[in-house]
Amino acid sequence: MAEKTPNLLVQASPFLRQGLTTPRVMADVLWALVPLLAMAVWYFGIGGLLVVAAATAGAVGTEWLFGRRMAGVRLADGSAAVTGVVLGLTLPPGLPLWMAFLGGVVAVGLGKLVWGGLGHNLFNPALVGRAFLQAAFPLAITTWVAPAGWTAVRQSNFALPFMQPTGDAVTSATPLNLMKFEGAETAPGALLAGDVAGSLGETSAGLILLVGAFLVLRRAFDWRIPVGIIASVAVFSALPWLIAPERYPSPLFMLLSGGLLFGAVFMATDPVTSPVAPLGAWIFAVGVGLLVVLIRLWGGLPEGVMYAILLMNAATPLIERVTQPRAFGHRRREKEAA
Amino acid sequence: MTLTARTFRHGIHPEGHKESTADLPIRRMPFGDRFVLPLSQHAGAPAKPVVRPGERVARGQVVAEAAAFVSSTIHSPVTGTVTDLGLRHHPNGRLVDAIEVDADPFSSQEVRLPAPAPWREMSDEEFVEQVQRAGLVGMGGAAFPSHVKYKVPAGKQIRTLILNGCECEPFLTTDHRTMVERPEAVLAGAHIVATRLGAEETVIGVELNKPAAIEALRGAIPEGAPVRVVPLKVKYPQGAEKMLIEALFGLEIPSGGLPLDVGMLVNNVGTMAALHDYFETGLPLIERVVTVAGPGVERPANLLVPVGTPVRAVLDFCGGLLPRTREVILGGPMMGMPMASLDVPVLKGTSGILAFTEAETRLPTEYSCIRCGRCVEACPQFLNPSRLARLARAGRWEDMERSFVKDCVECGSCSFSCPSGIPIVQLIRVSKSAIRDRDS
Predict the structure, then answer these.
(1) What are phi and psi of B64, to 5 degrees?
(2) pLDDT greater than 70 at residue B9
(3) pLDDT-derived band of residue A147, with 50, 70 and 90 as boundaries?
(4) Secondary-structure percent of chain A, ordered helix, strand, coil, rounded to 5
(5) Is some CB atom of chain A closer than 8 A to the CB atom of B359?
(6) Do A329 and B252 make contact, defined as CB atoms within 8 angstroms?
(7) Cβ contacts of B253 on chain A, cutoff 8 Å
(8) Does position A168 have pLDDT exceeding 70, yes or no?
(9) What DSSP state is assigned to residue B70?
């Protein structure tokens, strides 16, 4: 009975799959970061590129070194590179490279691998790295410089580990500092273009909106999160502004300044650390927006995006639990085990 | 029309791949030499053989009888001789009891079938018995014995008969061709069922990618008959019973419930044509339309194949497999079964034979779940497949049950949409069977 039969594969159905893969999603995000990186170099100089490179080297190196023996950790998924570049773009241009590198190590090591690798972490790894740097090096991470052209490389970038960086750079206040401590509002035009002091990738609001739209079109993340954050910041900051416009910044300034848009597009949207269900995504986004406004207007810090997202990351499992969609054919949301 | 067409919530949009066979008329495949009839080719108890080796049988003669109420009758697809009762490979990979029949090479295979029973005059019990006697099972793939659905419990009433003409599985065009070529048979079968069960209305759901079928059915509806064809958006798994009812009426069948609970009954269009054939000509379910397609097939076709014909013979009739073929599937690419061997028979529930090459069968590289939620958006049962997959890996069956794993229809939309290549539906299937084993 055995005629010539080809060797047949026996796999489990389905035998068709859509084309999108996780590395391609990560690659889309990396491509979207390239224009921001170019803009960072344009304003803050080659030194900025070195900061991002150091953070990325720390992140990818840690994933490679410690992830090698962990089940399910694959350098090829591209997630460590995304973490490194995103972290790098949230750092000040003059940050010593060794600090940026250390931030990358902490981001992937403590932010992701100790949790079990990609998909298991509670907090956004890049923000864990940044929070670590903020706690460890409060001075260096708040030393801002003014844009100085693409050739600029700062001496402080090359400070040796644990030495006080020599203060050669002309420090400059960010728009949020100006607002917080001097009550001066930077013009929207400068904020859209990005020709202001700030973290490497966060200053050009216009460019971030553009690449954000690209990522939404590519379905790289849930559009509800950035849209919800932007809308809620606008609403929550409009209330005090309408009551006392001389004391509080305009909603437009709130949206375009600082790390809000960068965080809304590249950090809050991390699917691992944000709710899956649509309703959960809205709750998460509104929570981030509310916390940003509270911290910026009434907190001690000029900027609040990082802590707002980290706090909502912590709330995500709870949000997830109460926003599970109602299973088909069941009357109401029956309680599920966590 | 596209904008107003109805559909269910969630689901996926795989490419249709129907163009290679959609316009090919159904052709009759010549009778082969040898036929294998597994006693279990329907849901429920295996049939009981009533013939012995060496016995002469006529085409359409009963060779195995239903062994229980949820069981079906099996007939010889050819005039010939029973050569063996023994173990044969079932397409599902198991060795099962089967009847082997060799065709009589000198028979024309044209037989005088027993006169059909007049369906209007029999009692309800007789009607159910006749349908079982005809060997009718759902021809969409699940092969559930049809007569079971027609035995409506006391106190329940079928108001709406729904015909499933979605054929949402890619590649398959058997229902499509049946609707285009035999709309009268489909409608006549539906008329019999609707009349017998006292249904007030018949609603036929057909996806918009089959305009010729919609047109043919509409053209064949008798003036004034309470029959509607409802075009549906193209989406998978619209042919799943509960999804089809949601698409047509916006109704959710309760978990664990049946369409019967809301006064409805769903039948595949091919099953309706077969039921018509039985009551019109006495022809039991001994042949069916099979789509042969896929990049590994030399000449794709829609064939009327005698049940029991080896898959190898069907493929040979279509010019054989191309050398680059890597995988052969019975059924559709979303829920079909992969074959380890071509020496298995076409069954009553075999809607397609698909041959795939390297390009379609490359196993996706598996990455970590990034909780992107695409499976959640795809699941027509509104479950959380990524979570179920995680629980499955940990063997947490109780937690899976609390997450409604039993509502999973195993449509595979989750695996299809997962960018991390996680075999989600397979993990769920394995767990469900582990849960069943534990409970039994």
Answers:
(1) -150, 140
(2) yes
(3) confident
(4) 60, 0, 40
(5) no
(6) yes
(7) 329
(8) no
(9) S
φ and ψ of B30, to 5 deg: -60, 155
- Integer Cα distance of B394 and B415 in angstroms: 18
Q: Which residues of chain B are within 8 Å of residue A327 when distances are taken between CB atoms?
A: 255, 381-383, 404, 407
3-state secondary structure of A92: coil
Contact flag A13-B337 (C-beta cutoff 8 Å): yes
Q: For position A2, what pLDDT does the model report?
A: 43
The pLDDT value recorded for residue B3 is 54
Closest-CA residue in chain B for A11? B338
For residue range A207-235, list pLDDT tens digits in order.
999 999 999 998 889 999 999 999 999 99
* A71 touching B (Cβ < 8 Å): no
Across A257-266, A297-306, B416-425, least confident range: A297-306
Whether the CB of B382 is below 8 Å from some CB of chain A: the reply is yes
Q: What is the pTM of this model?
A: 0.90
Q: How far apart are CA B418 and CA B379, in angstroms?
A: 11
Whether residue B201 has pLDDT greater than 90 = yes
For tokens 């015909």, the residue is: B163
How many CB atoms are closer than 10 A to CB B156?
10
Token pair 């609403």: residue:
A235
Q: Measured between alpha carbons, how far is A221 from A212 in angstroms, rounded to an integer?
A: 10
Q: Which residues contact A228 (CB under 8 A, 6 or more apart)?
A: A281, A282, A284, A285, A286, A288, A289
The Cα–Cα gap between B314 and B261 comes to: 41
- Pick from B290, B301, B292, B366: which is nearest to B325 by CA? B292
Q: Are B21 and B300 in contact (CB under 8 A)?
A: yes
As a whole number of angstroms, the distance between CA B337 and CA B173 comes to 17
* CB interface of A with B, residues 174-233, below 8 Å: 221-222
H-type helices in B318-384, by residue range?
358-361, 374-378
Element housing B396 (H / E): none
Question: Which chain A residue has its CA at the smallest distance from B421's CA?
Answer: A21
| A337–B402 C-beta distance less than 8 A | yes
Tell me which CATH homologous superfamily contains domain B120-281: NADH-ubiquinone oxidoreductase 51kDa subunit (3.40.50.11540)
Query: Are the beta carbons of A6 and B416 separated by less than 8 Å?
Result: no
pLDDT digits (tens, 9 = 90+) for B207-243: 999 999 999 999 999 999 999 999 999 999 999 999 9
Count Cβ atoms below 10 Å from residue B106 Cβ, excluding itself.
6
Task: Categorize the per-residue pLDDT at B11 as very low, low, confident or very high, splitting at 50, 70 and 90.
Answer: very high
Residues of A in contact with B423 (CB under 8 A): 12
Tell me the two tokens of residue A232.
């809620």
Decide if B111 contacts B142 (C-beta within 8 A): no
Query: In which band, very low, low, confident or very high, does the pLDDT at A338 lie, cut at 50, 70 and 90?
Result: very low
Please give the Cα distance from A180 to A166 (Å, whole number).
Answer: 27
Instruction: Supply A144's token pair.
Output: 């801002």
Over residues A180-189, the mean pLDDT reads 84
Average pLDDT over residues A20-38: 94
Summarize pLDDT for B92-135 with one digit per residue, the tens: 989 999 999 999 999 988 888 888 889 999 999 999 999 999 99
pLDDT of residue B42: 94
Q: Classify residue B59 by burial, with Cβ atoms within 10 Å: 0-12, 13-18, 19+.
A: buried
The answer to whether the Cβ–Cβ distance between A23 and B367 falls below 8 Å is yes
CA nearest B164: which of B192, B213, B206, B211? B206
Using CA atoms, how far apart are residues B402 and B387, in angstroms rounded to an integer?
Answer: 12
How far away is chain B from the Cα of A330, in angstroms, using its nearest Cα? 6
What single-letter DSSP state applies at residue A308? H
Residue of chain A whose Cα is closest to the Cα of B243? A328
Residue A336 has pLDDT above 50, yes or no: no
Which DSSP state fits B135?
T
Domain boundaries of chain B, sorted by first residue: 120-281, 374-439
